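task queued by scheduler; priority normal; single chain, no ligands, no partner chains; default sampling; output format set to structure tokens
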Amino acid sequence: MAQFADHKSVAAWLNAHDGQRVRLTCPGTTLRVVGITDGIEELDACSTDIYHGELRTDVPGLQIGVTLHDQGLALHLMASGEREGLAPVSLPVSIPYDRVRLDPADAPEHRQEAAREEPEFSPYELLHFPRSR
């Protein structure tokens, strides 16, 4: 499992694993994101370099943006609803680089975890709350 000190080391790792399923975690939290990395691009934002990419998932309507700032890695999870008129869910998460852990999702130590059956998830479930009577 790779550990990082700055945005350049995270960008290099993600670019080296472009097109592969990766697993991002943060020790001491329940955060676990698995997706296919599309690599990281350097963007010029008014004299500040920003590094941005995405993780693709099999969950319809779920987008995961990855932005590398000087202070840490920012994830932005966005889920859209299946019905019109429902506001999308937007969940930004910021992680200091020294707490970011990345590794290939198909690594041997994750095979048992992947073998467990996990419930199917729809982003719509985040948007639908039963009405109280």
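post-processing summary
- The radius of gyration is 16 Å.
- The longest strand covers residues 32-45.
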